[in-house]
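Dear support,

Our group has been running a series of protein-ligand predictions, and this particular one with magnesium ion is the one our PI (initials K.S.) wants archived with full inputs and outputs. We had some confusion internally about which version of the output was final, so please treat the block below as the authoritative record. The input we submitted was:
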Amino acid sequence: AMYEAKADRRGVLVYERSLDGHSPSRLALLGELRQALQDDQLVLYYQPKVDVTLGRVTGAEALVRWQHPERGLVPPGDFIPVAEGSGLILPLTMYTLEAAVAQAKAWLDAGQAIQVAVNLSPRCLVEPTIPDQVRQLLHRHGLPARLLRLELTESTVMADPERALGALMELRNLGVAISIDDFGTGYSSMSYLKRLPVDELKIDRSFVMDMLAEGHDAVLVRSSIDLGHNLGLAVVAEGVEDEETLTALRALGCDVVQGYHLARPMPASAFTDWVVSRVPIAVAGSVTVEGAP
Ligand code: C2E
Ligand code: MG
Ligand code: MG
Ligand code: MG
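Confirmed final output from the archive:
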């Protein structure tokens, strides 16, 4: 029951079941993770989000990794679900928020206004102090609120819609941008989607990755783009792994793409180099890209 809210998230189910309840391995992992937070072993990688038509970088998604002293770089799927099942997700989230905001400010000071997106777990959205903590964080770092984006899944919102709505209104009023993440994997009702103060919808990578091979996924991608646009939202496709998918998404009117075909998540310094040196994505017609020859 502890992990019910994430029953729609593929890939992590097997792992979660094996670490369910109070198994010794789960408790050991939690202890190690608590220590990792204190020892600064968590690092953020950044993956660019790119404008489909202009090729401009519209932002960077911050994705946490655990630089483990023995096990190397541990992916978030191996520890976020466990943290989410305990109170540890709150300090962990504050840690990632702080690091992402500090990075966005460093980029801004270096002349690049790059919006950073941070993933917010269900527990965090219903935590009453979160909006105020975000406000203080932005103030402390001197980062304009519009350079921070929060990504929430449908299930995060639908777990407690009224409370989520209240928290999102507060965050939105600060000027923070908000996305619905992994769209298509949950079950949000249309009426809530319409009421949510979000400005971006991210189509889950599972649909995007299979859209050229699977008719059903192509239909889902197409209708998500239309739905998003009808609600006045920008639509992002995540998991773009090849040029053909990028071309198809452009034809469907998708606004922003994210995926290995553009770039893998990378450390902040590599991200900076990538932004400066990259060649623009192939664009139909003659479009000039900022900073490109
Ligand atoms: P997400 O928010 O949907 O993030 C996108 C995931 O897709 C990332 O996995 C990214 O590396 C991966 N990805 C990007 N492009 C491609 C592609 O072209 N192909 C494929 N196959 N994958 C692609 P990652 O970094 O392993 O993160 C997994 C999930 O962990 C994230 O899904 C997010 O739900 C969660 N997560 C990551 N960082 C944080 C965090 O700081 N806090 C919280 N609460 N959750 C986080
Ligand atoms: Mg995300
Ligand atoms: Mg996603
Ligand atoms: Mg996800």
